Inverse folding.
């Protein structure tokens, strides 16, 4: 199996994964991964992933030109391209419209770190990028600006969520953790003012996760 074929299968796998997890609504959401030779694979625009096959994924170069596909790429291609160009640690990007995180995007309020797993996986609060029309270059620039050099997730105002990672599995897990943390934060407000983790606590949790969590590599 070629790298391109494997990448197409993985992109489709995680596109179906975010649908099964309830992280997207209809066809609003997209997935991509970066390949070698300055090429990426991304989901096509406006097609339900339940009827897609691996060969339906779209191969695109970093200039946004379709290299291989019979379909148009996601309308958020510019968003993916600009993040890959700005962040050499990003090899996979998942854009969702998950319910609870999007509540914060609509309110234009950051998601504070209130759970240990959010501190471990995201390393800090998740900011809101300034509003811009979907699919626009302005939206892409605003997202890159809000992410900065170290952010792993960003809320798109009145729109949704973007998570990135070194792998699709990592980006997907960040989407899951962020959505769960957003839900917990919203519910906790029924009991009063949520207790946020301090920056020192967040740093310690992130460091412990990176150095000690899981099995030895």
């Amino acid at each position: 199996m070629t790298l391109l074929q494997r990448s197409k299968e993985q992109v489709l796998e995680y596109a179906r994964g975010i649908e099964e997890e309830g992280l997207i609504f209809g066809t609003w959401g997209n997935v991509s991964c970066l390949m070698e030779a300055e090429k990426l694979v991304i989901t096509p625009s406006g097609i339900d992933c339940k009827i897609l096959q691996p060969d339906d994924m779209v191969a695109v170069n970093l200039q946004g030109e379709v290299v291989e596909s019979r379909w148009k790429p996601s309308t958020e291609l510019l968003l993916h391209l600009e993040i890959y160009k700005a962040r050499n640690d990003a090899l996979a990007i998942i854009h969702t419209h998950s319910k609870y995180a999007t509540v914060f995007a609509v309110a234009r309020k950051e998601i504070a770190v209130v759970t240990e797993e959010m501190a471990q996986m995201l390393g800090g609060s998740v900011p809101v990028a300034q509003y811009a029309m979907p699919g626009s270059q302005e939206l892409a620039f605003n997202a890159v600006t809000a992410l900065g050099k170290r952010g792993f997730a960003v809320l798109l105002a009145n729109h949704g969520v973007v998570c990135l990672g070194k792998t699709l599995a990592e980006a997907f897990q960040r989407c899951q953790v962020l959505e769960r943390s957003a839900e917990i934060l919203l519910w906790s407000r029924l009991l009063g003012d949520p207790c946020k983790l301090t920056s020192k606590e967040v740093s310690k949790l992130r460091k412990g996760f990176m150095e000690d969590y899981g099995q030895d590599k």
Strands lie at 30-35, 39-42, 58-61, 66-68, 92-96, 128-129, 153-156, 160-165. Residues 115 and 180 are 9 Å apart (CA to CA). The first helix runs from residue 3 to 20.
